Amino acid sequence: MSERPKMLSEVVRDTIRLKHYSYQTEKSYVQWIKRYVAFHHRRHPREMGQAEIEAFLTHLAVEGKVAASTQNQAFNAILFLYRDVLNQTLDFDIQAVRAKRSTYLPTVLTPQEVRSVIAQMNGTYCLLIQLLYGSGMRLNEALSLRIKDLDFDQHQITVRNAKGMNDRVTMLPERLIPDLQAHLQQAKSCINRT
């Protein structure tokens, strides 16, 4: 009995994993590709081209009123689909209506507001938030830390497979070292009890 052919979303996932893209990128690209196909009444992307890509991206900007970064993400997912999954070169310029760039400034907490938020927390969550704030790591980077990534002597953290699949080094705040070491000791004692 022969195996059923893989669905397009399965092939996309396989290709993303072969290229070692992040799980967040995988989720995002699969979702955008599904939306692209659904927008064109479930036609296979091989049957579509420039006009369909432009129509979808224009729809996102005009009807969906998405941010420019969202439209770019959708375009990157479609580009990945054609270039890396279907092995088709897009040798044309996309002339879609571009979404407007956001003019909003991000809300940034003052140091006092940060201290006030952290004061309301305790335990592991408090330590995690302090580590994020003090090191500049992203949440997934902090959640993926391993003991060998912490260099207490040099006050450094090695962030593995960061954005773009590159390793980088960031600072380990000196004032967090005692709390981190106590946390590691507590985790070690929990493991030894089991």
Keywords:
hpI Integrase, Chain A, 3-stranded antiparallel beta sheet, 194 residues, DNA polymerase, domain 1, mainly alpha, 3 strands, 2 domains, 5% strand, 8 helices
User: What's the total count of β strands?
Assistant: 3
SS summary, helix count = 8
Mean of all residue-level pLDDT scores = 88
| Count of folded domains | 2
CATH topology of the largest domain: hpI Integrase, Chain A
CATH superfamily of the largest domain: Intergrase catalytic core
Description:
With 194 residues, the protein is mainly alpha-helical. It has 2 domains: 8-85, DNA polymerase, domain 1; 111-193, Intergrase catalytic core (hpI Integrase, Chain A, Orthogonal Bundle), CATH 1.10.443.10. It has helices at residues 8-18, 23-39, 50-62, 68-85, 111-119, 123-135, 139-143, 177-193; strands spanning 150-151, 156-159, 168-171. A 3-stranded antiparallel β-sheet has the order 1-2-3, with no helix packed on it. A hairpin with a 4-residue loop joins strand 1 (150-151) and strand 2. The mean pLDDT is 88.
Question: What is this structure, in a nutshell?
Answer:
With 194 residues, this protein is mainly alpha-helical. It is 53% helix and 5% strand.
What's the helix and strand layout?
Layout: H1 8-18, H2 23-39, H3 50-62, H4 68-85, H5 111-119, H6 123-135, H7 139-143, E1 150-151, E2 156-159, E3 168-171, H8 177-193
Antiparallel strand pairs: 1-2, 2-3
Helix pairs in contact: 1-2, 2-4, 3-4
